[in-house]
Amino acid sequence: MDPTKTKAWEDLSALSSTDGQARLRDLFAEDEDRFEQLSFEAAGLFLDASKTRVTHRAMDALFALAGETGVEERRRRMFAGEAINETEGRAVLHVALRDNRHGKYSVDGKDPMPEIEAVRERMKSFTDAVTSGERKGATGKPLTTVVNIGIGGSDLGPVMVTEALRPYHIDGREVHFVSNVDGTHLSEVLRRIDPERTLFTIASKTFTTQETMTNARSARDWFLKQGGSEADIAKHFVALSTNHQATAEFGIDPENVFGFWDWVGGRYSLWSAIGLPIALTVGWDSFEDLLSGAHAMDRHFEEAPLRENLPIVMGLVGLWHRTFLDMPAVAVLPYDQSLSRLPAYLQQADMESNGKGRRLDGSKVTYETGPIVFGEPGTNGQHAFYQLIHQGTTEILCEFIAPAISHNPLGDHHEKLLANFLAQPEALMVGVTEDEARAQLKEQGASDEEADRLAPHKAFPGNRPSVSILMQKLTPQTLGALIALYEHKIFVQGAVWGVNSYDQFGVELGKVLAKPILAELKGEADAEHDRSTSGLIARIRSLRAD
Ligand code: F6P
Q1: ipTM exceeds 0.90
Q2: CB 458 within 8 A of CB 440
Q3: Interatomic CA distance for residues 18 and 300, integer angstroms
């Protein structure tokens, strides 16, 4: 449906120029309970949306919009296993991967749980055998190093989670991730590892992705050159994929293939066999805790009333800023070094899901959809791009994330980190008027002339919105809940915008065009291009010939 035809959309459009322009300082002054009313808690996460530019009237209209656009019905259809990925005719059931309930889900009339459990059981036995040292490499040495070869959803989730769960790593285990087709990525990792102790996990849903297949073949060649035999490959290479024919053609024994299903989207797949490198690094129990944290958020999303529902609230608040207040970007700002890869992970999760310009029926959208997602851990980002967020001409919705307790309590580091986590949203909200800036300058001894000259530069517009997400500690459970919160937030926004959040045709054209160019660069063919591309190809050829 076209959401602009709803009454709530009309109301929100009107509110965007009134309530949407209200000053947060005033909203807090007028309403003592604003923080209590606009903060929410579930599955170990506390979400404060009170520093965003919503009013109670805007929230009412946003909930009405969710109702009119059928968000709850689409949620029901997702959990029921209906093919809500309509362009690809697939169900979207990553929630089932972190559940245990038989009879809850159905795909094409069949309960997927027995198959999910069977793969989980194999992953568990394999993980236990490798981490205990019982399963050894071809020369009898324990497999202490994992090299995951995959890209996009077959890389970003496992990278982000293994980094986030560093305190849970099993002693003595090493994990590396190779994604880029740039030979530097693989070479740098191969230089550092011992083939006799290395297990390669080749992760690709389709098992056709150029980067992954190229890296996998090169890793295999390297392994053989290091003295491994063809027979040894079975002990050192496993595949994580839905494409059993392609894994067999690659030469991977079916015993060494951990499968999943077409109803698991690539960017929603870390809960499936794609999570094997996570389990091999943190152990099976922690991997299960990650699943259970996500499941707690799933239950909350499915069962909690709209007005108390974190993913619904976060999705609607984000949509208000993106579509009605025209803010182009979301900054993901984890105040936790171990979440350093979360922004990159969410870039794919959000931008590949909701970076769409057509509704399900093919009609063009006439409003802004998925935001640009970027970020860095605090406090590093503060010394890089926060200048623009505070004083630039573009307003950006910021999402601050922090654990109250650190895994590495070192002196007062964590208190300092938290002080910044709290001060930045406060500064963004309150700002500094020119008068305040002038008065401060004078207090510091500036002359009237000097104060007048510098005040405009030292003023902060303020009223810049942010969400804060707090947890007690970053554990497998809270991390699982956090990722699921974002997955469902993306779902909610996609449902209101009426787009299919689960396909990604936008990544195809570049892949198709790269094929003939590759043949040209190898000198095997010539092709017609625009003059710029032809000029660049000629220039590359001449640079390589020098
Ligand atoms: O970037 C496009 C994409 O299809 C992603 O959606 C996916 O996560 C990634 O490529 C990797 O795909 P695969 O797991 O099939 O190798």
Answers
A1: yes
A2: yes
A3: 33
Q: Are strands 257-259 and 145-149 parallel, antiparallel or unpaired?
A: unpaired
Residue 157 has pLDDT above 80, yes or no: yes
Is 68:8 a contact under the CB 8 Å cutoff?
yes
Please give the positions annotated as active site: 352, 383, 511
Residues 6+ apart with CB under 8 A from 430: 24, 25, 462
Atom of ligand 1 nearest to the CA of 267: 8
Whether pTM > 0.95 for this model: the answer is yes
Q: In the structure, what pLDDT confidence band is assigned to residue 171 with cuts at 50, 70 and 90?
A: very high
Task: Indicate whether residue 179 lines ligand 1 (CB < 6 A).
Answer: no
CA 269 to ligand 1: nearest atom: 8
Distance CA 325, CA 53 (A): 9
**Mean pLDDT, range 260-264, rounded to an integer:** 98
**Percent of residues, the chain, with pLDDT higher than 90:** 99
> Is 68 in contact with 74 (CB distance < 8 Å)?
no
pLDDT for residue 34 = 98
Please tell me the distance between residue 54's alpha carbon and the centre of ligand 1 in angstroms.
36
- Substitution candidate for ligand 1 out of 90, 156, 205, 212 with most atoms within 8 A of CB: 205
Residue with the nearest Cα to atom 8 of ligand 1? 153
The 3-class SS string of 402-455 reads: EEEECCCCCCCHHHHHHHHHHHHHHHHHHCECHHHHHHHHHHCCCCHHHHHHHH
CA of 152 to the centre of ligand 1 (A): 5
